[in-house]
Amino acid sequence: MKPTDFRIWGLAPAWVIMALTLVVPIGIVILVSFASRGAYGGFDWGFSPASYAQILFEEDWDGNLAFTPQYLSIIGRTLWLAGLTTAICAALALPAAYTIAQAGGRAKAVLIYLVTLPFWVSMIVRVYAWIIILGNDGVLEKTLRSLGLVTDIDSLLFTNGAMLTGLVYSYIPLMILPVFASIEKLDPALIEASHDLYGSRFTTARRVILPLAMPGLMAGAILVFVPCLGAVLEPILLGGGKAMLMGNLIQTQFGGGRNWPFGAAIAVVLMVLVMIFLMVNALRARPEVPHD
Amino acid sequence: MDRKKAVEVVNVAKSFGTFQALKGVSFDIYDNEFFTMLGPSGCGKTTLLRMIAGFESPTSGTIRLHGKDILSLPPHKRRVNTVFQSYALFPHMTLEQNISFGLENLGWEKERRRARTAQMLEMVHMSQFARRRPAQLSGGQRQRIALARALAPEPEVLLLDEPLSALDLKLRQAMRDELRALQRATGITFVFVTHDQEEALDMSDRICVLGHGEIQHLGTPNEIYEDPENRFVADFIGETNFFEVDVLAVNGPQATIRTPMGQTLTTFHKGAQVGSKATLSLRPEKIGMEDQADGPAQSGELMEGRITGRNYMGGYTHYTVDVAGVELRVSRRNAVSHSASFDPGRTVRLGFRHDSARVLAR
């Protein structure tokens, strides 16, 4: 068997699985997004851009289209929240990853283990725990009150802040690990060289450590930003369903809303956003400097 | 030479746990000097260098830079620069940016920075590579950029941590000359760390031989090779034959001893005491064999021996010779092409000038 044969036939099972579980469903979603809503909650096949128009325009009783910002604001909020989550994760992960990388053999292994520890517990349970912490009469509120810091506070739960907290909490390990990997590769002599050449700690962090941690930050950004765009759990449990994100909107349309074409259209928009993000990221990433 | 002190190392000791890496060493390095710290690995030479740079601090003792105590200063506030063993060039910066980095941190104006960077690139013959990145360079080129980067901010002292150890033999030879020329041209004090004695002898004004956490000998290359302070130094620098000898008399700098080959001779000593045993050090190239002009003819009675081994090294041939049951190493220069060579088993006559041997305390 020629090597090329093997390349084709060896990959065949993977190709089949990918085709069946990814390409076909995505194709169906795209087709459904161009279908029209059926009278009894289903959909009728066809080719109509109506569902996409619905994202921007509202049809009144007379059949006139009027611009509506309600879905755009959901998309905007989703992008903003995912971006903010990514930024906060990056800001927190850099010093954490640097500290872990500096730690000695055994301590390093333990710290890495601790970072991955949350994955051992179901996501729902972990997010639910935040309800107990942030909720009315919750752990945080009680603590603040008993310290006399506050007398009466508005609910911490069901706010954008709560949602953001939950998202950062859920995804930060996915930022710490790749950033750690790139910082660990960094030759400690480079940091000494920076100090030796009159670089303060801040200068060293900004001009040596940060640029060299960039590949890790980029990988982390993908791992955090992309799932944040589709987050469903945190908005429901911590945002209280008041402030919807795209994930919730899609879920609602397929569920209670019974508007599959519209849900599919939002899903396609989400997919396009993710692809744009990945492409920009791939183009921005310079080929890594070869080591000898 | 200007004798102003650039670096003063005062009673510096360093312990790692129970291991004493440095047992309280003191010495001065003068301005405009090529000073080498030489020793086997683990002798504390790199630790000393890193203390001057500020990456490590002594357990006790003081280090002064031009009279000022620098121990309380972090590395980035010390006016010294380091050429690292691995060069440690910033991989994400061009060569220009690498060289300019220290100048920016010192707050130099843009124009001055540019001029200095260009000058440094010129100095190391790398001007045409200004916009390249370190990964695109060969080992020797990286070495040059590391030097340019460290010299650019005009440090009071330049520290070099085994900078030639990663280069191949030919390049190392060329870089030695370049380093020495650079030191002369810039007039900056170089503090060089190496375990390679040849490098040290070739480049240094003075060498500090370190061993077992202590200074074994501090002197010029010639002093260290020809008049070693003790057995450690004689053994570490170059090749030598050691004999256990009886000290018969000591008269000032001279001692009279009897060798195991049966000769009685008088020569210079370090720390020999009458009636006790001492070590005689005799370098292989100081021993003449048969027809060599500067050998047997000049002084000392001739010894008879039998060749037991031969190693042809090109420029030299090393022999081992059995003289009355004592094994002697003899080095013979191949002065003409196809020099006559002595086959193992052959009987030869050997001799050496008595004042070429040294008596050392055991």
TrEMBL record, chain A:
Domain ABC transmembrane type-1: from-to ranges: 75-281
PROSITE patterns noted in UniProt: ABC_TM1
The keyword ATP-binding is annotated on this UniProt entry: no
GO-annotated biological processes: transmembrane transport
Phylogenetic lineage: Bacteria, Pseudomonadati, Pseudomonadota, Alphaproteobacteria, Rhodobacterales
Keywords: Cell membrane, Membrane, Transmembrane, Transmembrane helix, Transport
Localisation per UniProt entry: Cell membrane
Protein origin, superkingdom: Bacteria
Transmembrane segments: 12-35, 79-98, 110-135, 155-180, 216-240, 260-283
Similarity field: Belongs to the binding-protein-dependent transport system permease family. CysTW subfamily.
Protein name: Spermidine/putrescine transport system permease protein
UniProtKB/TrEMBL annotation, chain B:
Pfam families, A to Z: ABC_tran (PF00005), TOBE_2 (PF08402)
UniProt catalytic activity: ATP + H2O + polyamine-[polyamine-binding protein]Side 1 = ADP + phosphate + polyamineSide 2 + [polyamine-binding protein]Side 1
Record keyword Cytoplasm present: no
ABC transporter domain residues: 7-237
Gene Ontology molecular function terms on file: ABC-type polyamine transporter activity; ATP binding; ATP hydrolysis activity
Enzyme class: translocase
Biological processes, Gene Ontology terms: putrescine transport
Subunit (UniProt): The complex is composed of two ATP-binding proteins (PotA), two transmembrane proteins (PotB and PotC) and a solute-binding protein (PotD).
Family under the similarity heading: Belongs to the ABC transporter superfamily. Spermidine/putrescine importer (TC 3.A.1.11.1) family.
Name of the protein in its database record: Spermidine/putrescine import ATP-binding protein PotA
Organism: Gemmobacter aquatilis
